[in-house]
Design a protein that fits this description.
single chain, alpha/beta, Rossmann fold, 9 helices, 8 strands, binds adenosine monophosphate
Length: 209
């Protein structure tokens, strides 16, 4: 099963990708997680990406394509993968098609999670990430400010500040949203309503795979 998750920031792509990856035993690749980890480690890639990520802009395509190229060649994706945060624009999508064609693969489904912007702004404002187990949660679900799953410390992402959220939504509108039409024309897009509980959304996705 080879899946791409689409949707605005805060639509729930990461949360749902984690669940589906566990359910099917396939790797979950989040380009945002990779970039944040490189930034934290202070690597060359992290230094190149930092300014873009923290201001809500897309990092240059070449940087992301290098990451994906390595991943596509890896043995771990034999049974499939779930892509979260890539592709982010039409140029990346076209490069991706070439890459997977070259490796005799194809995409099965592109899952587009649909949520309205008021909901997204609300969710991102209260979103927290566990530094220990990486669980994505919200401040309302935390237990005394700690992760409800492992008790780890919760942090707010640098780009979950209100002014950066607005920029990320602009970038989504201009560059990422056109991918919906792109994949619809290829006959592999499914639209999933992202409202309701996490479990309800997972159920809707599983019914459409
Ligand atoms: P995310 O965790 O998917 O919301 O991504 C966080 C940030 O990482 C984005 O706002 C971009 O700065 C950067 N990023 C992640 N994926 C990509 C991508 N495919 N292309 C360009 N920039 C990306």
């Amino acid at each position: 099963m080879r899946i791409v998750m689409l949707g605005a920031p805060g639509a729930g792509k990461g949360t749902q990708a984690t669940k589906i990856s566990k359910k099917f035993g396939i790797p979950h690749i989040s380009t945002g997680d990779i970039l944040r980890s490189e930034i934290n480690k202070g690597t060359e890639m992290g230094l190149k990406a930092k300014e873009y990520v923290e201001s809500g802009k897309l990092v240059p395509d070449e940087l992301i394509i290098d990451i994906i190229e390595d991943f596509i060649k890896d043995d771990s994706i034999k049974e499939g993968f779930i892509m979260d945060g890539f592709p982010r624009n039409i140029a990346q999508a076209k490069k991706f098609i070439k890459m997977i064609d070259k490796n005799d693969l194809s995409l099965d489904k592109v899952v587009n999670i649909v949520v309205d912007y008021d909901e997204v702004i609300k969710r991102l404002g209260s979103r927290r990430i566990c530094v220990q187990c990486r669980k994505i949660t919200s401040i309302d679900e935390s237990q005394d400010g700690r992760c409800p799953e492992c008790g780890g410390k919760l942090v707010k992402r640098e780009d979950d500040r209100e002014e950066v959220i607005r920029e990320r939504l602009n970038v989504y509108e201009e560059q990422t949203r056109p991918l919906i039409e792109y994949y619809k024309n290829r006959g592999i897009l499914v639209n999933i309503q992202g409202n309701g509980t996490e479990e309800e959304v997972t159920e809707r996705i599983l019914n459409n795979l």
